[in-house]
Write a structure and sequence with these properties.
Blueprint lengths: L1 E9 L5 H11 L8 E6 L8 E7 L2 H7 L3 H11 L3 E10 L4
Antiparallel strand pairs: 1-3, 1-4, 2-3
Length: 95
């Protein structure tokens, strides 16, 4: 299993609730997403939001990234709202 961790720093922190709502509406319904969770970063840090997506394999992650609904969410909705983003994939398989 692969855990995709996405950290977001918004240009306007007052939009955190809106971004969390939109992310919750879109991301769990995309193909390949097995499990989804999200939350606010609690401690003052370089990021405001954490998005956690679980996939069965890296093949599923590679199919998810260019998927049209994901691209629309990232390119049209999210990019104008973020200052920075960090994404990583973690193998949570048999560890």
């Amino acid at each position: 299993m692969i855990q995709r961790i996405v950290l977001l720093k918004l240009t306007d922190p007052s939009e955190i609730d809106d971004v969390l709502k939109k992310s919750r509406e879109v991301l769990p319904n995309l193909p390949g997403v097995r499990k989804y969770s999200q939350g606010r970063v609690l401690k003052k840090s370089d990021y405001d939001i954490a998005l956690l997506l679980t996939f069965d394999s890296m093949n599923d992650v590679h199919a998810y990234i260019p998927y049209p609904a994901h691209r629309a969410y990232v390119d049209d909705y999210l990019k104008p709202k973020i200052h920075s983003i960090a994404a990583m994939n973690v193998d949570i398989g048999n560890g």
